[in-house]
Write a structure and sequence with these properties.
The chain has nine helices and 14 strands. It folds into two domains: 242 residues, 3-Layer(aba) Sandwich (Aspartate Aminotransferase, domain 2); 100 residues, Alpha-Beta Complex (Aspartate Aminotransferase, domain 1), CATH 3.90.1150. It is of the alpha/beta class. A hairpin with a 4-residue loop joins strand 6 and strand 7. The longest helix has 20 residues. It has a seven-stranded mixed β-sheet. It has a three-stranded antiparallel β-sheet with strand order 11-12-14. The structure holds 4'-deoxy-4'-aminopyridoxal-5'-phosphate (PMP). 4'-deoxy-4'-aminopyridoxal-5'-phosphate binds next to helix 3. The site of 4'-deoxy-4'-aminopyridoxal-5'-phosphate has 11 residues, from helix 3.
Length: 360
């Protein structure tokens, strides 16, 4: 069976080099005589794996020393609740920018613990843009500001920081972490489920400024308190050992390719190629205004549900899979994370051109 080009929004494709490395290690990791998933998380071998993964991520993202890197479970969805549980401590209020379904879910969870104040929303136009933000929206009577840096379903992204002043900025970077260079110090907390740009589902990365750890009320369960993870090297209990190991392989791979700056360059080229084709197409249309377009998730439509269906089915036959848009948007969506090679984007464009010619 040949590999396909997998445009899934997540779980998404992984670099073939990483899969091969995992295959090499499968029966026995190094001299251990066992697979990593069979290994005690308290063993020296495993400690090396998690320490190296953290060090490589710190390197890749230039994470300052006053930030902790935590490996959690529960997906980005658990962070929708953990962030307010841990951070809504003084004003019991946070500002939210509502840019899609994931932001909405974060808002719903925050409401359980305090006031979730929506400062701006793009819901009026099916979340096809990022709302204009200005400094007076972010009143200082809030514990933090929450944004979704890249909106996986709608294919939009923040291209500049919201003017939050001194307020801690929290971002859901599930679908854009490691795709372009950012300054971690601009954020108080970054979280991301792994299954798009990092590795397998099951591990969630939290990067948190240390002064924000340790303020959760006593009523917060131990496993929902960031302090538990920070104090115990993410090993208060058994972490998702295998997912962290694969994430570590991805980090090594990214370093070998030249790091996040290099990925950003490639991602911009891949996205530009695809958007340019769509913008010049008599058949396909992009759904997002150019200035808000995501580098990772590219939604497009033909304008006819029938044709969309035919497109997706034909693409699958051509080895280009998971191009169906999210059920709430319809149409198509090509997710082109770090691990999607340029050749995959070229093949997609070639198929689109062929489809277009057949449907003049
Ligand atoms: N936030 C964003 C931006 C996402 O794309 C997703 C998943 N598609 C989630 C949160 C939810 O992630 P999880 O399934 O890991 O809870």
């Amino acid at each position: 069976m040949e590999r396909v080009y997998n445009f899934s929004a997540g779980p998404a494709c992984l670099p073939i080099e990483v899969l091969k490395q995992a295959q090499d290690d499968f029966i026995s990791y190094g001299n251990s005589g066992m697979n990593v998933m069979e290994m005690s998380h308290r063993s020296k071998e495993y400690q090396d794996i998690i320490d190296t993964a953290e060090a490589d991520l710190r390197d890749l993202m230039n994470i300052p020393d006053n930030y902790s890197v935590l490996f959690l479970q529960g997906g980005a969805s658990l962070q929708f609740a953990m962030v307010p549980l841990n951070l809504m401590t003084k004003y019991k209020k946070a500002h939210f920018v509502k840019t899609g379904q994931w932001a909405k879910k974060a808002i719903e969870q925050a409401k359980k613990f305090g006031e979730a104040n929506v400062v701006a929303s793009s819901e009026d136009k099916t979340f096809s843009y990022i709302p204009q933000l200005n400094a007076d929206m972010f009143t200082p009577d809030a514990d933090y500001v929450h944004i979704t840096s890249n909106n996986t379903i709608y294919g939009t992204r923040f291209t500049k920081l919201p003017p939050v002043g001194d307020l801690p900025l929290v971002s859901d970077m599930s679908s854009c972490i490691l795709s372009e260079e950012i300054n971690v110090a601009d954020y108080a907390l970054i979280y991301a489920g792994a299954q798009k740009n990092i590795g397998p589902a099951g591990v969630t990365i939290v990067i948190i400024r240390n002064d924000l750890i340790g303020h959760a009320p006593d009523s917060v369960p131990t496993m929902l308190n960031y302090k538990t993870y920070a104090d115990n090297g993410s090993m208060f209990n058994t972490p998702p050992t295998y997912a962290i190991y694969i994430a570590g392989l991805v980090f090594k791979h990214l370093k070998k390719l030249g790091g996040v700056g290099e990925m950003e360059k490639i991602n911009k080229e891949k996205a530009a190629m695809l958007y340019e084709f769509i913008d010049n197409s008599p058949l396909f249309q992009a759904t997002v205004e150019p200035k808000y377009r995501s580098l990772m998730n590219v939604p497009f439509i033909t304008g006819s549900e029938e044709l969309d269906k035919e497109f997706v089915a034909g693409a699958k036959k051509a080895g280009l899979v998971n191009l169906k848009g999210h059920r709430s948007v319809g149409g198509m969506r090509a997710s082109i994370y770090n691990a999607m090679p340029e050749s995959g984007v070229r093949e997609l464009i070639a198929y689109m051109a062929k489809f277009e010619a057949e449907h003049k």
